[in-house]
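#structure-requests
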Amino acid sequence: MAETTIIHRLQISGPAGTSVYEIPMGTAVIGRRDADLVLDDPLVSRRHAQIESSDAGCTITDTKSSNGTKVNGIRLKEFDPHPLNPGDVIEIGAYTLTYEMEEVAAAAEAVAPPPVPEPAAEPEPLPTLPEPPVSEPAVVSEPPPKPARKSRAETKINGGPPQDQPPIPPSLPPMPEPEGEPAYTPPPGLSLTESRYLQYLPGIYHTSFMKRFLALFESIYAPIEWTVDNFDVFLHPATAPADFLPWLANWFDLTFDQSWDEARRRVILMEAHQIYARRGTRWALSRVLEIYTGLTPEIDDTGENLEPFTFTVTLPARESEVNATLITRLINAHKPAHTSYVLRFK
């Protein structure tokens, strides 16, 4: 009698190429790692979606993913099962999954009874071997007796150790036991039991040991690849890591003061091309003081009572509320070299 078996599968197309995934009966989790179907892409959440499969059909549910799941261009609601029809296109991150369903008819084969083993023939008796001739016992000469060992009292000379024994070395202190090292944690997005490098090897190497073995190398080389592919992020003051900001400041021959916080350092770097293009002007000096104090200063270089090449800088704050030493250093660094100034506080 012919039986019908339903097979559910996904045709996968993504950055790593194309592949086919046969959906098992029950629940299958789709995610970036620790999932039944692993999709290696930063836009895929750790547990992105799940598929419920049965003989009646398949449904897909978005499990509150960060970037959402689309079916035929429509984004699914969170935790709302959506039925799948053959030909539906699922979009998850940079991957496209096409759902297919196939009915396979399998004929039941008659099971033949196992053959009855024939009785084994009795083994033939082994031939009797002739007894070896009896030979006379060989005479073994006894070794000469060893000389009697002298006692420690007889061999002790001038209070030293016995001459027939080496001196006993002093006892060494016990070796300290190694302290327990913390468990290794892979970088975000990587796993200790899965590796995308396995797809470049023949199927004979797709073993659990090879996955763990390649995961060690991927945890070293993958962060290097990410840094090279996204190096443009390091070149913008708004997205560069905090430890990378001093290197960007070297482009403008700028040295950060230890009292400057990270927000002020990023602002001065983003506006450095404008400030340094107008360096020595009233606007550039006012903007630098405004960034580091949060106050807009008043700069007067045209007053009638001012001496030649002299200007005044007035800050709307008390001297005890700001760092007067830092402000003086900033004014000296950004004013014209041939001028002098008077710093005032309100």
